[in-house]
Amino acid sequence: MKIILNFIGIVAVVLGVLGIFLPLLPTTPFLLLASACFARASPRMHGWLRNNRVFGKYLRDYENGAGIPLRGKVWILIFMWGSMSYSIWRTELPWVRLLIMLIGTCVTIYLTRFVPTMHINKK
User: Fold this and answer.
1) Who's near 1: CB < 8 A, 6+ residues apart?
2) What tens digit of pLDDT does each residue of 17-71 get?
3) 3 state DSSP class of 49
4) For residue 14, how many other CB atoms are within 10 A of its CB?
């Protein structure tokens, strides 16, 4: 089972990194999946993921229940809807447009309603 979870975790990390550059391929869900797989199969890989300088802080905050900073949520929504709008504009299939809008709406609702907003105190 550890081999399968590690394999899924590695594939999820690759897809998450690709999601940084490709529209409609989500980054955060893949990284959360990778973190969950590594937490059960490889403490070393889980530690590497949580301490990664690019996305480690966001994973630690999310896993610890602190949520995502408001600024991060705003940027996520801007980039997500920007790439989705481009994809909607480029496709001619009405059912694909509807599917993209449905996915975007669900992610927006999840992010704004169910993911805590981390408040940063500036001194």
Assistant:
1) 41
2) 888 887 667 787 888 889 999 999 999 999 999 999 988 888 888 888 888 888 8
3) helix
4) 12
